[in-house]
Amino acid sequence: MKHRSPPPPRDxxxxxxxxxSPVRRLMLDLLRDGPRTTGGLAERFxxxxxxxxxxHLGVLxxxxxxxxxxxxxxxxxxxxxxxxxxIYHRWVSRYQEPWVESLVALKHELEGPAVRAxxxxxxxxxx
Length: 127
What we know:
Elements: H1 13-19, H2 22-32, E1 36-37, H3 38-43, H4 50-62, E2 66-71, E3 74-79, H5 82-110, H6 113-120
Antiparallel strand pairs: 1-3, 2-3
Helix pairs in contact: 1-4
């Protein structure tokens, strides 16, 4: 009987979909510096219509990456980094540790006794 790993959480699919667009990734980068109004975001994308900016924001909100808050007539958009952190823990951190351990082991192997021996037999430089 083969051991199968559990399927990835389906609740991250909207996050992946949201991150697939370079425009939405740039919006997240802008929001990382602090909240912005929808109009303020639209000004940063002169080649994109205000309607398209609002659609992009809708995808980011649906994925939980942006949290809108209304203040009077203005809508401020705040970055919510939690979904990105979940992706990091699910995908990046799992693969990072074995790679780092392998690289450290390779470094020690390549810098084995011969390298350490050369380092101890160096002559001091004259000034």
